[in-house]
Design brief:
The protein is about 35% helix and about 25% strand. About 30% of the residues are buried. The radius of gyration is 21 Å and the shape is globular. By secondary structure, it is an alpha+beta fold. The protein has helices at about 10-15, 55-70, 115-120, 125-130, 150-165, 170-175, 220-225, 230-240, 265-270, 290-310, and strands at about 20-25, 30-40, 40-45, 50-55, 75-80, 95, 105-110, 140-145, 180-190, 195-205, 210-220, 245-250, 275-280, 285-290. Helix 4 crosses helix 8. The strands form two sheets. Strands 1, 2, 3, 4, 5, 6 and 14 form a seven-stranded mixed β-sheet that branches.
């Protein structure tokens, strides 16, 4: 049974540090981490990239356990994100498709190969930039200091304004970086003429026993000119390989056939220059337990979305 980092004991510790109330259960044919969420219209349970199960029997048992837990907390619904892309074919009648929270599609790179085979999977153009980075005044450092998260956040805010996407709060990102599985990478550029150093790109990665997840990243205009994200991604992959991890997860791509104005289109084109493969998940679904209250929740959610866009 494959258990992603978002369903792990480590992720439960992160939720505890964030002040969330979470529940963890492992059985012979299923496993889940469920987070109790509170809204003005009522509670719900959320299983990020879960529950995990080996077959339909395992899913049925997991859902029964989650329903019992939901009843204990008077929850309106259970939000799930199964890894099985065929989930819709056996989803219960009271299942409603929700807006995807975690990416439904992602791009993976297999690291269980020789160093030479891995280099063949990396874009040759980016490898050239990576090998000449020092000559151009580019260095990459790693940090576990939560105060350094301000560099990533500053870059992300500029990108969010440009792409119309949202960012996490500084407190949230700091709490993530405090976790043992998190590492912040900073790309620095030293201008030879002015002798001024600036951070031109940053990335936050999470590692579990098998996989490196490339969750957060951004660069500024100078970073774009110097191909900082490409250089950083090469470093992230090589470091993951050196740790004997088996997979590099680029964490989300735009769906097939997405329009050119999709906010992830450029990211997706970049990620697919690496010789990886696409992994599809089911997406985000709600198992509705209280239909009337669920309708109220949906109305309130739509109103909030409209306000945010405005």
């Amino acid at each position: 049974m494959n258990i992603p980092i978002t369903q792990s004991e480590s992720w439960r510790t992160l939720q505890d540090d964030l002040g969330e109330q979470s529940y963890f259960k492992t059985a012979s044919n299923y496993h889940y981490l469920a987070i109790l969420k509170h809204t003005p219209t009522g509670n719900y349970l959320y299983c990020p990239y879960g529950p995990c199960f080996e077959n339909i029997t395992g899913f049925t048992a997991a859902l029964e356990s989650l329903k019992n837990l939901a009843n204990e907390h008077n929850a309106i619904f259970i939000r799930i994100e199964p890894s099985d892309a065929s989930f819709k074919s056996y989803a219960p009648r009271n299942t409603k498709k929700s807006h995807d929270l975690n990416p439904k599609e992602t791009w993976l790179l297999d690291l269980s190969c020789t160093d030479e085979e891995l280099k063949q999977k990396l874009p040759s153009r980016l490898l050239r930039y990576y090998k000449s980075a020092d000559k151009k005044g580019i260095t990459i450092t790693k940090s576990h200091n939560p105060d350094d998260i301000k560099h990533l956040l500053s870059l992300q805010k500029a990108l969010a304004n440009e792409k119309g996407i949202s960012t996490f709060s500084e407190g949230y990102l700091k709490t993530e970086l405090k976790q043992p599985f998190a590492t912040l990478y900073l790309v620095k550029y030293l201008d030879a003429e002015t002798n001024q150093e600036e951070i031109i790109a940053a990335g936050l990665v999470f590692d579990d026993e098998t996989t490196r997840y490339n969750l957060q990243g951004a660069q500024n205009d100078q970073g774009r000119k110097l191909h900082a994200t490409g250089i950083l991604t090469i470093q992230l992959i090589l470091d993951a390989k050196a740790k004997a991890l088996k997979t590099f997860d680029f964490w989300g791509i735009a769906p097939e056939g997405a329009p050119d104005d999709h906010p992830w289109k450029g990211f997706t084109n970049f990620k697919k220059t690496f010789a990886g493969y696409e992994q599809d998940y089911a997406g985000t679904y709600d198992i509705v337990l209280k239909p009337t209250k669920y309708k109220l929740y949906q109305l309130a959610r739509s109103a909030n979305r409209i306000r945010r866009h405005a």
